[in-house]
Queue: 2 jobs
Job 1
Amino acid sequence: MHRHEGHDACQAGVGDMLARAESVCRERGLQFTPLRREVMEAVAEAGKAQGAYDIAETLSAPGKRVAPVSVYRALDFLMQQGLVHRIASRNAFIPCAHGHAPGEGVVFLICRSCGGVDEASSEELEDGLDRTLKRAGFTPAHSILEVEGDCGACRGRQEAG
Amino acid sequence: MHRHEGHDACQAGVGDMLARAESVCRERGLQFTPLRREVMEAVAEAGKAQGAYDIAETLSAPGKRVAPVSVYRALDFLMQQGLVHRIASRNAFIPCAHGHAPGEGVVFLICRSCGGVDEASSEELEDGLDRTLKRAGFTPAHSILEVEGDCGACRGRQEAG
DNA sequence: GGCGGGTTTGTTACAGTGTATCACCGCAGC
DNA sequence: GCTGCGGTGATACACTGTAACAAACCCGCC
Ligand SMILES: [Zn+2]
Ligand SMILES: [Zn+2]
Ligand SMILES: [Zn+2]
Ligand SMILES: [Zn+2]
């Protein structure tokens, strides 16, 4: 199985993610079509956040063009099912390796150096956010938490180099 | 002085923000040109996050066209000085009403209903985030924290209506 | 005043991201 | 067969952002 370099917190392999996607769709009575599978696979294999146009190019081959619009539709579907996430600060998409509940506060850790994106969730962080919002009299519906920086692997490599 | 409706946590008025912008530029030996002032004013007066093209249209008049690229340059300048913020999830810009330090963790509270955007900062939230990142072995450089939901004013209005 | 160099702005063109629309296909259900 | 519906293909388009170059502007200096 392919496993990308660069950041090591990617617990689930590509096969695991595809299997989970398939079972999620089956459970919910939804179609895991070839196109959706290919898009999921492309996102899962990349090892870093992929733009929709990147995915379209990856899936295209001489004689078989996949238009970006098709990729967007597949991505919309996969996002609704919680199988991929959109990284707003990059206009790009990553596979969800965790299968957390929707609405659960998750922080995306985006490495400047290797481009890898990990997810971190934390009770503590979520509590802090909830209290901050409550103090402001704000009722949250959806959060976007993204941090750009250097992942442990890349930091180690820099210090060693 | 104009004060928009919708959310009430906008402490600073348009005049205050313009005055601060002017003094910030003077202190730093930078030019607060007419264009930059107009863009700052447009962002400050809007009451909700404005797209660059919206601002360009606002500033344009028959016979005097302001191109989006000029607006982008002014916005880049104002962002560098911490006078406006970019809302990544909206591709839009708001004035900074607080004058906080750069790099300080600030959450943007985006109201679905009125479109207003407030800033909230919290020691507690920042500590939670720091600890979460530390646990993940991640060194942060820049954070994007945006929450979409309903502001207090709009929630009150909904319950009343 | 005239000159030189940095900054700001205007203008055009272009790249990147995302959506609307309509037609076509495949398949389940009648 | 026919119909309805979800998925896909294809084109066009809107929105967001940047590159490149020229013109204008400012300011210190001769
Ligand atoms: Zn996830
Ligand atoms: Zn890294
Ligand atoms: Zn601010
Ligand atoms: Zn509101």
Job 2
Amino acid sequence: MPPNTSPAVVLERAAAACTARGLAFTPIRQRVLQLLLEHGKGLKAYDLLALIKAEQPGATPPTVYRALDFLTEHHLAHKIERNATFVACTQENHVEPSLFLVCPKCSAITELQDRSVMQALCRALAAAGHQLDNPEVEIGATCPNCKGS
Amino acid sequence: MPPNTSPAVVLERAAAACTARGLAFTPIRQRVLQLLLEHGKGLKAYDLLALIKAEQPGATPPTVYRALDFLTEHHLAHKIERNATFVACTQENHVEPSLFLVCPKCSAITELQDRSVMQALCRALAAAGHQLDNPEVEIGATCPNCKGS
DNA sequence: GGCATGGATGTAATGTTATAACATCGCCCT
DNA sequence: AGGGCGATGTTATAACATTACATCCATGCC
Ligand SMILES: [Zn+2]
Ligand SMILES: [Zn+2]
Ligand SMILES: [Zn+2]
Ligand SMILES: [Zn+2]
């Protein structure tokens, strides 16, 4: 895992990925991803909206939800369901299933890929007659910073 | 696992558990759990509210949210975050972490306990410096019924 | 050029999910 | 009787998300 990849680099990669796939990486989408990256911790849609509004007073909920739809659809960002926040994807090229560790104390989010967990998971699912579908799994897990307290 | 334990039995067990723990299993709480059990598939808070309202016209959102808070707090029901539904707990005595398999097609929910998955999970978390906190893990997984389609 | 096409955005309204705040009731205890 | 306290009633509002339709603009085709 690249430790602390800078926002600028991730943005570059995202732009490249969009070009490669024939997707329009428009200013709004870019800006939303950038805000997510700069923030680091995951943002609520309406916080994002407030930030966008500061630069673009006409922005409304659809403005930001559309950008978020685009980003999540193409795995450039992810939605954390349990607290309705959005976070930039930290994987170089997100195709495999990810675990999202969500700290209940500080809401920090860590994206993690772990083969052995996914294997165990798939085995258990198969035993129950199910089949893994959504590659995004949220886990409540206290982060290193909050572990002591 | 008890196959298809009847609502009545689960209600009995819930009542007993509350008595044992000195908790008030009031009519509203009972009724909400019963509705969840009868429905089987998980209900939205406002659907539940509509059902309650039919018998008790004065019911309002807090009426049902309070009952749900109680039930989830004491593990008699669970909230499925990804689609904001609530489901009755199917475990005889829910203390260990559970996996919740949520079918993306039909929204059916299966509660599953699996030691090996949880072990793999805890190991991966520990390696990342985290610590499992929330014992409830949602997984998107196509259910046996929907697997063919 | 004229003009259909389709994706992206603007705009207004609304739908859905959840909580805050405060009043009241009923029960247990003294 | 009076106090404490958990449960409930009641009103309002906060927070999260979508629908629906108008407009714009780049692209490709006649
Ligand atoms: Zn990712
Ligand atoms: Zn933390
Ligand atoms: Zn359970
Ligand atoms: Zn299904």
